[in-house]
Amino acid sequence: MILCLSGFSQDKDSLSVIPDSLKINEINLNDLKFISFKDDNILNRKSKKDIDYLFLSGMGAAYLGAGLSVHLYQANAWWSGERSDFKFAEDWDYALWIDKVGHFYATHLIAHFFSAGLEKTNIDYATNIWISSSAALAFQIFVEIEDGFAQKWGFSRGDAISNLLGASYPVFQFYFPYLYNFQPRFSYYPTKLGKEGHIAGQNLIITDDYEGQKFWLSMRIKNILPKSIADPIPDFLMLSLGYGVRNLDGRGGGFSDLYISLDIDYEKIPLYGEFWQFVKNTLGYFKFPMPGIRVNNGTTFFLLCY
Prior knowledge:
Elements: H1 53-79, E1 88-89, H2 98-120, H3 125-148, E2 155-156, H4 157-175, E3 182-188, E4 213-219, H5 221-224, H6 227-230, E5 237-246, E6 255-264, H7 274-283, E7 290-294, E8 300-305
Helix pairs in contact: 1-2, 2-3, 2-4, 3-4
């Protein structure tokens, strides 16, 4: 599904989001707002343009409508006629932890789309990053509170902590730009989509089809490795560490799989301008099919791993 939130580059010469060896001071600060830190004043820098309040209002209405739509869907699919007193649910190891990884990723992704909209309103990026991350966390916590009143669910402290971490990661990336070298990504291949889940009468959707999901941490290895090792590596090549599950039985059984795979840095695609930069940033949330290997539960090589 991802990259480093929204920040838009305007021209070809300033496109590289993570310069080689993270030589950030060599980057045009006016073009790379979301990773450029040259002095202490950069975090307080205001946008050179006036805030577009009309666009901001429209964006707020759109996000509110989207949130309401999601709420109505979940209210009908999960919570309808099954209200109860508020309660907590301890489910740290639910679905062999992949559910918690998914909450981290989903909150990060929601923050990305909030940030993209706020970027277009000309709000300075320091303010943008805090608002977008807070809004993503607020939405996810709202869903958890609703779960707390559902008979078959409950407020999951584990989910809430994962949501908090997912919302915090863009903030940490902003203040510590080296973290832009480490990008959460997602891939999916249906396994049980549309089939009945462990709760009678509930058909699985993508978010519940855990065995079809893989979550990745994609790394810009050319920026991480020593220069003597990194020089021969192509700029577009990344390395991803992945996690997936198999044969879940709803009682804690199944397999946790670890993967290593090559990946693509979408920032190296030669498409320029605000729109294409947004597209590449968003693609950065999704794993590109590349050769890989499962390293446990029976080592297996894959021509395409996703």
